[in-house]
Design goal:
heterodimer; A: about 120 residues; mainly beta; seven-stranded mixed β-sheet; four-stranded antiparallel β-sheet; about 50% strand; globular; B: about 120 residues
């Protein structure tokens, strides 16, 4: 697609429910990143993929969070048994592997509110 | 480890006056540095990036930044602020020792422009 597309844009869920956030990267982009941004803060790294392989998941806060990219394109970030502290903007980004300094393009994000 | 410190959480300028948003970085490698802008309810947009070429980098909308290794700084400037520049600005570092390494964001500086 023309840009990074995320869905849903807004999600309100009850505490304890599972949530799946979807990211459709720019066509042909090898790398895909997930970030979380709380109100008044900068984005914080969660995890990233090259093709279908998860390269780094050190930013995932706990084992309720998981991500997959089974075919090396669309990715899903899943949060199980959501808690109020999970409320944030979840941002997806993609890029091509042109070495350091390659431009990373962000989607508009998915706002998650856990009530 | 790499990190970014944005020295001001909020900067307020009058329209037509210069803008200075300060950023200091810490990186074990020759870093790549970026400035991103976030307008309300919009995605993150790349303003400019430094990747070890010219130390003075020009970006979109009249912004520029100068990489100063001796000061570990990458301050963002613009000669004359416009009302449309009001937004959140993020200084970002990528370690640079390999491709596709995740970006590390500062906490952001909110720029207000007064008419």
């Amino acid at each position: 697609g023309a840009g990074v597309s995320q869905s849903p844009r807004y999600k309100v869920t009850k505490r304890g429910q599972d949530v799946a956030l979807r990211c459709d990267p720019i066509s042909g982009h090898v790398s895909l990143y997930w970030y979380r941004q709380a109100l008044g803060q900068g984005p914080e790294f969660l995890t990233y993929f090259n093709y279908e392989a998860q390269q780094d998941k050190s930013g995932l806060p706990n084992d309720r969070f998981s991500a997959e990219r089974p075919e090396g394109s669309i990715s899903t970030l899943t949060i199980q048994r959501t808690e109020q502290r999970d409320s944030a903007m979840y941002r997806c980004a993609s890029s091509t592997p042109r070495g350091s300094g390659n431009t990373i393009y962000f989607g508009e994000g998915s706002w998650l509110t856990v009530v | 480890a790499q990190s970014v410190t944005q020295l001001d959480s909020h900067v307020s300028v009058s329209e037509g006056t210069p803008v200075l948003l300060r950023c200091n970085y810490s990186s074990s490698y020759s870093p790549s540095l970026f400035w991103y802008v976030q307008h309300p309810n919009k995605g993150l947009q790349l303003l400019l990036k430094y990747t070890s070429a010219a130390t003075l980098v020009k970006g979109i909308n009249g912004f520029e930044a100068e990489f100063k290794k001796s000061e570990t700084s990458f301050h963002l400037t613009k000669p004359s602020a416009h009302m449309s520049d009001a937004a959140e600005y993020f200084c970002v570092v990528s370690p640079g020792h390999s491709g596709n390494t995740p970006l590390v964001f500062g906490k952001g500086t909110r720029l207000s422009v007064i008419a």
